[in-house]
Design brief:
By secondary structure, this protein is of the alpha+beta class. It contains 2 helices and 10 strands; from the N terminus they run E-E-E-E-E-E-E-H-E-E-E-H. It folds into 2 domains: 37 residues, Ubiquitin Ligase Nedd4, Chain: W, CATH 2.20.70; 133 residues, Nucleoside Triphosphate Pyrophosphohydrolase, CATH 3.90.79.10. The N terminus is likely disordered.
């Protein structure tokens, strides 16, 4: 059974308030309620990111003071709400963070994000096209700007954004070399 020193922050059952206890379930220890049988499955949340390209330039945002990873750059992104379609979440997050309305296209990448031990996420990066709005940073960003794929600002907030940006740069460089 894998070692899980930090099973959860939950100590009590959300249904009956009985203290939870660790118990083996499948190949993992899970927090279980001995009274009602509730099992707490600690699952990742889903995040979305909007990849907006203009030639070999990409739109990035700088994380605002007071937000996580303040001062670092990222592909505009956010979390999917409980009752929200994943593509609608991408549209909403892009509008909140950049002021731009987008059409959401194909998924470019899907990665597990392990950079924050307290918040494991699965991210989906979508190719998006601008259909309206005016570029203006908002929500978790204090700046939004265009950068050449071969001249990106540092630091980047998320290691998985770096993977996506490297792949985009390789794809763009390959297309340019085949023209």
């Amino acid at each position: 059974m894998p070692s899980q020193p930090h099973l959860t922050n939950y100590r009590y059952c959300p249904y009956c308030a009985t203290p939870l206890t660790p118990a083996p379930k499948g190949e993992r220890l899970r927090m279980v309620c001995p009274a009602c049988g509730f099992i707490h499955y600690r699952n990742p949340t889903v995040g979305v990111a909007t990849v907006i390209l203009n030639g070999n330039r990409i739109l990035l945002g700088r994380r605002a003071p007071g937000s996580t990873y303040a001062g670092a750059w990222c592909i505009p992104c956010g979390h999917v709400e409980w009752d929200e379609d994943i593509r609608e979440a991408a549209r909403r997050e892009c509008l909140e963070e950049t002021g731009l309305e987008v059409s959401v296209g194909e998924a470019l990448a899907v990665h597990s994000n392990f950079h924050d031990p307290a918040q494991h996420t699965v991210g989906v990066w979508f190719h998006c096209q601008i259909i309206g709005g005016t570029l203006q940073a908002g929500d978790d960003l204090d700046c939004a700007d265009w950068f050449a794929l071969d001249d990106l600002p540092q630091p980047l907030a998320f290691p998985t954004d770096e993977l996506v940006l490297q792949q985009l740069h390789q794809n763009f460089s390959g297309e340019k070399n085949h023209d």
